[in-house]
Amino acid sequence: MNKVVLAYNFGPERLQQLRQVCMILKVNCKAVAAEQFDDAVGFLGGVKGCPQEAVNPPENQEDKLAETLEEAAQKAGEDPEVVKKAAIQLLMQAAQKEMVFLCGFDMHVLNQFLAAVKRSKLKNIELKAMLTPNNQHWSGRHLLQEIAAEHVYMKQFGKNMHK
Asked: Are 123 and 20 in contact (CB under 8 A)?
């Protein structure tokens, strides 16, 4: 399988910077248009036999995130309602953020890619995911929501986990 970076929600300038990083690493870079957000990420990444139509897990992400945040807030001694409101706002913002979806990467190329992003004008891409047998049939929209929810959770409580 070819190495491909699927770029979601990138503006023209940052997309060009990402393409430069990919070119240096000899990795294909594909900007995913909004009308392709519901296509399976495996199809967009060139996985043989992966259909274009996405098959997403059941939609209960908001409920699951709310429960997880409520438990974490209680453990941290914070008001669960305040935490949930802040998380919903962060989740809405996160779903509009840039995301890269990496197809066909091994650990060596992944580490090279992450280091090259840090050294480039991009500096950071907050939302990143890799192709797995579990997510190849998901839509980019669903994957973006999943990764955004994880990002929100880590932003809210990740700092408390390392104390």
From this structure: no
C-alpha R_g of the chain: 17
CB neighbours of residue 71 within 10 Å: 12
Its pTM stands at 0.81
Q: Please write the tens of the pLDDT for every residue from 37-52.
A: 999 999 999 999 999 9
Helices marked H in the chain: 12-24, 41-44, 61-76, 80-94, 107-119, 140-161
Identify the domain containing residue 138 by its residue range: 4-161
Q: How many domains does the chain have?
A: 1
Nearest CA to 45 out of 115, 109, 54, 9 is that of: 54
Asked if residues 42 and 67 have their Cβ atoms less than 8 Å apart, the reply is: no
Q: For 109-139, how does the pLDDT look when each residue is reduced to its tens digit (9 = 90+)? A: 999 999 999 999 999 998 999 999 999 999 9
Q: Which amino acid is at 157?
A: F
Neighbours of 78 (CB within 10 A): 16
For residues 111 and 54, is the Cβ–Cβ distance under 8 A? no
